[in-house]
Design goal:
The complex is a heterodimer of chains A (about 500) and B (about 120).
Chain A lengths: L5 H4 L35 H14 L20 H7 L2 H4 L11 H18 L3 E3 L5 H18 L6 E5 L5 H8 L3 E5 L9 H7 L4 E7 L11 H10 L3 E5 L19 E3 L2 H4 L14 E3 L11 E5 L2 E5 L21 H37 L4 E2 L9 E4 L10 H10 L6 E2 L9 E3 L7 H19 L3 H5 L12 H6 L10 H5 L1
Parallel strand pairs in A: 2-3, 2-4, 4-5, 5-6
Antiparallel strand pairs in A: 1-7, 6-7, 8-9, 10-11, 11-13, 12-13
Helix pairs in contact in A: 3-11, 5-11, 6-7, 11-13
Chain B lengths: L3 E3 L4 E6 L2 E6 L1 H7 L2 E5 L6 E2 L4 E7 L3 E5 L4 E6 L2 H4 L3 H4 L8 E5 L11 H9 L3
Antiparallel strand pairs in B: 1-2, 2-3, 3-9, 4-6, 5-8, 6-7, 8-9
The chains are: A alpha/beta (about 500), B alpha+beta (about 120).
């Protein structure tokens, strides 16, 4: 059944709350007060509640089933995180309160920072970035500041062709130019091609590890040494840190800056449940340029450095966000860290890698792995198994919807033809994985058996059939418009 | 169309006197799928051979388009703003991207002809 918009459901005069009549006395709007109706729909509380519940039932969510989006890490959000974030001492504080009244909140920030520094082996962290790409920007601005402080004008950023699209975008936004580095036949960065591109104008490399093919960059230390050898910096896209947390310290690999998506590695809500949070850890060379604000241990307890003072922040490159960052996410992430402990976090990484390899092992004869050998936390197939079936990667993904699954990430990374990138995360049980595997096997056999029509028509069981993505992109309808009074009167 | 020269990045160029007309190949549009947006350089932009000249966005991906030769952009295909589907309908004709004043006509000699390009894409599967 089609769900009408609230604006289409409402009727004048209906109301869910009983508000006192506002006083019509003096105001200070200087004649700018609104004179017409504001056009809000009239609705009762049950109408509003049912509207959103019905919408949520049409949706697919991690709370409803396995959500295999590779590169996105849709892991379970523990309910304990939510309980902690709702404690009044965290939920009801205001960032402008005197620091003496929010020592507990500052202690959470300080403790999150400590965990991140320990887990990454890097000495400093900027907590304020509001998401992964924002963290990238923050890290690259720190690199820019460090280069400026040396009096240099390095311009070039090396970015592998398998990178997240945000990497080159960040580099350009920070005033750099992007020089792509090819991947080799193993799905990893081509080290000799990287070395050939190095020079005194190279500011940094931006490398993801494990990379977007779900593979560990096993020559990363040599890459780090090479980039440092020409005076450049090593930015690591930490989006996939969840695969190595507790196992590998990025600082030991020669990394100068890395953002950490709290919503991926540390289970804070993701997507519509956000907001995201993307703290950046920084090496000793970049630490002085970390943005404001940050928490320090002062004589009167924890203090927030909001402006450069004689002791702290003299070389800070500025701020990247109003206030201190996503406080609610810090509480959730710290809850996850403390409830798992260091051994538990290590097991998170191990289980996420084990689960992905379980899927790889179970499907490698039926689907076509993009690269030989084991993977890390996500498993990447290409579309060779669909060759001559008349079924594309997109059709295959749409057919998964009819089987009750959200599809995996498709057509990314771009360097793999018809890519299908699956990340089960550590949250899934073996029986859940077995069911998922059985579904994919059955679909693959069906495609190979010549039943292309089944795939081309999918999805049939979703609230919407196949969308016209082309028309949506070429002629987007970006807002609802009320019917004209004449139509409304009909 | 004869006389087109091709790059490994799937651009084509057609020489017209001292100017080259540049677009993406029919193979490229097929790989991209329905094109929904094309970002063109502004006239007067100086571009190096192999330098980024445009961006083509399809429902699947956004890709950079590189200039096969060096020179100065003298005109762009304004029709693509309203009708990016021209790239799908006529990649190597009405769906051209821009006209570039040739900085060094000898650069054209380094590019592939139709036969060589066809062999190149056959090797890509």
């Amino acid at each position: 059944m089609e769900e009408a918009l609230l604006f289409e459901q409402g009727a004048p005069g209906r109301c869910g709350v009983d508000l006192p009549e506002p006083s019509r006395g003096e105001n200070r709007l200087g004649g700018l007060e609104r004179t017409g109706d504001i056009g809000l729909p009239g609705l009762s509380e049950p109408e509003v509640v049912r509207h959103f519940v019905r919408l949520s039932q049409k949706n697919y969510a991690i709370d409803a089933g396995l959500y295999p989006l590779g590169s996105c890490t849709m892991k379970h959000n523990p309910r304990l995180n939510e309980k902690m974030a709702r404690l009044p001492g965290f939920a009801d504080v205001h960032p402008l309160q005197p620091t003496s009244t929010v020592q507990g909140a500052l202690a959470v920030m300080d403790e999150v920072a400590r965990w991140l520094k320990v887990l990454t082996g890097l000495p400093a962290v900027a907590l304020s970035p509001g998401a992964g790409a924002h963290g990238e920007m923050c890290g690259m601005m720190a690199i820019r500041a460090a280069i400026d402080a040396r009096g240099e004008s390095r311009k070039r950023i090396l970015v592998p062709d398998s990178a997240h699209g945000t990497n080159p975008a960040t580099a350009v936004l920070c005033g750099f130019t992007v020089d792509p580095v090819p991947s080799d036949s193993r799905g990893r960065i081509d080290l000799s091609a990287l070395k050939a591109k190095l020079g005194p104008d190279v500011a940094a490399i931006m490398l993801t590890n494990p990379n977007t093919c779900g593979l560990f960059e096993n020559e990363i230390r040599e890459a780090a040494a090479a980039i440092h050898g020409v005076g450049g910096f090593f930015y690591c896209d930490g989006a996939n840190f969840n695969a190595i947390v507790g196992k590998v310290r990025p600082g030991d690999l020669g990394i100068d800056a890395m953002h950490i998506n709290l919503h991926k590695t540390f289970s804070t809500p993701h997507g519509g449940g956000g907001p995201g949070s993307g703290p950046v850890v920084l090496s000793a060379a970049l630490a002085p340029f970390a943005p404001l604000p940050f928490v320090v241990h002062g004589r009167q307890g924890l203090q927030l450095v909001e402006a450069p003072n004689g002791e702290h922040g003299g070389q800070a490159f500025g701020r990247v966000k109003a206030f201190h960052g996503q406080m609610g996410m810090f509480v959730r992430a710290l809850t996850y860290m403390l409830s798992h402990g260091s051994d538990g976090l290590r097991q998170v990484a191990e289980d996420s890698v084990l689960n992905a390899n379980y899927i790889l092992a179970a499907l490698q004869d039926e689907l076509s792995p993009a690269y030989p050998g084991p993977c890390m936390h996500e498993v990447l197939f290409d579309d060779r198994f669909l060759k001559d079936t008349g079924v594309t990667t997109l059709d295959f993904a749409k057919a998964m919807i009819d089987e009750g699954y959200h599809p995996m990430t498709v057509y990314f990374p771009l360097i793999v033809h018809g890519a299908l990138l699956t990340e089960p995360t550590e949250s899934e049980s073996r029986s859940s994985l077995d069911q998922f595997i059985a579904t994919l096997r059955a679909l693959a056999r069906r495609a190979k058996g010549g039943d292309a029509a089944h795939f081309v028509q999918a999805p049939r069981l979703a609230p919407r059939r196949r969308l016209d993505e082309t028309r949506a992109a070429r002629n987007p309808v970006l807002r609802w418009r009320p019917p004209s009074p004449a139509q409304a009167a009909e | 169309m004869s006389g087109l020269k091709y790059t490994q990045e799937h651009e084509w160029i057609l020489r017209d006197g001292n100017v080259g007309v540049v677009g993406i190949t029919d193979y490229a549009q097929g790989q991209l799928g329905d094109v929904v947006y094309v970002e063109l350089p502004s006239a007067g932009t100086e571009i190096e051979a192999g330098g980024q000249a445009a961006i083509v966005e399809s429902v699947k991906a956004a890709s950079e388009v590189y200039s096969p030769v060096s020179g100065k952009v003298v005109a762009v295909n304004d029709d693509l703003a309203d009708n990016p589907g021209l790239v799908n309908e006529s990649a190597e004709g009405d769906g051209w991207f821009f006209r570039i004043e040739l900085g060094d006509p000898s650069e054209l000699d380094d590019l592939m002809d139709k036969a060589a390009y066809d062999a190149f894409i056959a090797g890509l599967k």
